[in-house]
Amino acid sequence: MSIDGHSSAPGASIHVNHWCEHEGCKQWGCYGHSPRKDVPARWWCAEHFPHKFGAELEAELKARG
Ligand SMILES: [Zn+2]
């Protein structure tokens, strides 16, 4: 066990780097959403989080490309 308790092994930690996916935004993506368990979460900062979930969010993401 390392001092900080984290491992760099893939899948060993949920603490991955995820930045806001909004184009041009360099802020930390502190708000994540995944429509299903088998779909990797997408991340946004507080400013760009779409504040929508489920089918509504999926539709918006699809529209954005
Ligand atoms: Zn952002």
TrEMBL record:
Q: Under what name is this protein listed?
A: Uncharacterized protein
